[in-house]
Amino acid sequence: MAASSANPSGESFREAIAAGYPAGPGTLLLGAAQREGTVHADLPVHLALSLLNRHGLVAGATGTGKTKTLQGVAEKLSAAGVPVFLADLKGDLSGLAAPGEASDKVVERARACGTTFVPTAYPVEFLSLTGRHGAPVRATVADFGPLLLAKALDLNDTQASVLALVFKYADDQGLPLLDLADLRAVLSWLAGDDPPDLSDYGGLARSTAGVLARRLTELEAQGAAGFFGEPAFDVKDLLRTAPDGRGVISILELADVQDRPRLFSTFLMWLLAELYEELPERGDQDKPRLVFFFDEAHFLFDDASKALEEQITHVVRLIRSKGIGIFFVTQTPKDVPADVLGQLGNRVQHALRAYTPDDAKKLKATVSTFPRTPFYDLEEALTTLGIGEAIVAVLGETGAPAPVVGCRMLPPASRMAPLDEAEFARALAASPLASRLAAPVDRESAREMLAVRLGKGGAPVPAPAAPAPAPGKSQPAPSTGGQVAAAAAAALGGLFRFATSREGQRLIRGVLGNPTRARSR
Ligand SMILES: Nc1ncnc2c1ncn2[C@@H]1O[C@H](COP(=O)(O)OP(=O)(O)OP(=O)(O)O)[C@@H](O)[C@H]1O
Ligand SMILES: [Mg+2]
pTM score, two decimals? Predict the structure, then answer.
């Protein structure tokens, strides 16, 4: 069915698109408008940088160009001085660090979009949870907090409350929980043969402590031990610009933990919570402070409990005011919970397949989430888009939708294939951040302190003053009993009802961060 070339108000396609996706200094170029098989090189499609903190979704069937779209948008953001964070599950994105190859296809694609292909490498920092494929990203157990850790360990409410108790006890006793060994040491002491008096804390069932210990072992077996400890990652390192003013693209290489979605999804929530805490509030600005991309975002949600889903929804809503945009990249919008989807103001929908009745249903559902358009038959368009083509829909400044537009996407200017091993090794060797974070530091913490205390007569002596923080490092500090009690109470009963009933700051601190910590950085 041919769609008409004018909308009911008589506005032509050309006028509508030019008005909805205008060029300008505060925009990034996605590609050129296309309709009924024609690419309009003179009708560019721009996204407004100022609206990227309204978040976004890049969706489409496998192989349709989602990751290349992400790569292209990341490049444009970097060029505009905006730092970018990419969660890279398949190791697809390291090519951003090298110039692209000027193949005939790519040169022609750029030309068809009204531009010239200029191979360009971008400033990239590689990060890794295991430390194998980038600067190791670590957090202390205390920084991570009992509530998020409970999720990483897949604990039920009762078990989570015991974990909260262990944190509180360690906090009260001035026993810093830096790595998993510290947590294990405190736990085994509290559940051991000669435990301290825990009547003030409500007691601790040995069987539950046993479950916690087993879960810790499982988490360690997943390679998480290296993640907890010091030197801790400072999220401000994600906000850097290169000496030439371009935004640094931080790529978190997750290919080696791909089979452990719980580990990295909790980590990503921690990262967002940290950013939320660290960054001052700021209203809408001409460009975002940082844009996050979660490629293969279904991994975030596949296995997520209702509670984690609620948290993601809250973070997505709140973090916008800190100038951070979040883009989810996944096969179908159905992979993203409706409440999150409802907050994504920028949509790039690549082709969908409609082979089976179920596909057809999904297609209809996707179409129904787009604003009405007089210019496209969306059901047909979405099933006939070629690779690297998409239907784009954004919300304008006022929140009103801009007209839906078909778009032939620009090719990325960086390399579409990953770096080879030698290139990767060179990139890592050249990174001051990687060398700064490479060697773990094992300063005195709960495990060592307990060993000393228990060695002297088997019972804990009153807590000594907390050790001096390592220079420049964060120091989990004891905090007020009230805050900890709130956390424990939250863990004990209706954790997430508690969490969702409080306003933003409190929610993030209480649920995602650790209410027991004070910050020194
Ligand atoms: N904008 C583009 N410019 C040039 N080539 C592109 C573009 N988009 C996609 N391609 C081509 O299509 C291939 C597949 O694209 P991409 O890896 O982005 O797909 P995907 O949707 O992320 O797939 P998957 O779901 O398997 O991750 C690329 O390797 C590239 O050859
Ligand atoms: Mg992909």
Answer: 0.84
Q: Which ligand is nearest to the CA of 60?
A: 1
Cα–Cα distance, 15 to 9 (Å, whole number): 12
Cβ neighbours around 48 below 10 Å, total? 20
Domains of the chain as residue ranges with CATH: 13-137+230-434 (3.40.50.300), 146-199+208-225+443-512 (no CATH)
Q: Residue 519's closest CA among 163, 324, 235?
A: 235
Q: Across the 521 residues of the chain, what is the mean pLDDT of every consecutive 10-residue run?
A: 54 91 94 95 96 96 97 98 95 96 98 97 94 88 88 86 92 92 92 83 86 90 81 92 97 87 78 87 88 91 74 87 95 90 95 91 91 95 97 89 96 97 92 84 85 63 40 38 38 31 35 39 34
Find the angle CA(12)-CA(47)-CA(324) to the nearest 5 degrees. Answer: 150
Cα of 71 from ligand 1 centre, angstroms: 10
Pocket residues for ligand 1 (CB within 6 Å)? 60, 62-68, 72, 106, 109, 387-388, 409, 411, 416
Alpha-carbon span 441 to 232, nearest angstrom: 9
What distance in Å separates the CA atoms of residue 283 and residue 204, rounded to the nearest whole number? 46
**Residue 462, token pair as written in the block:** 């009153």
Atom of ligand 1 nearest to the CA of 92: 17
| Atom 31 of ligand 1, residue of closest alpha carbon | 416
Whether 410 contacts 113, CB under 8 Å: yes
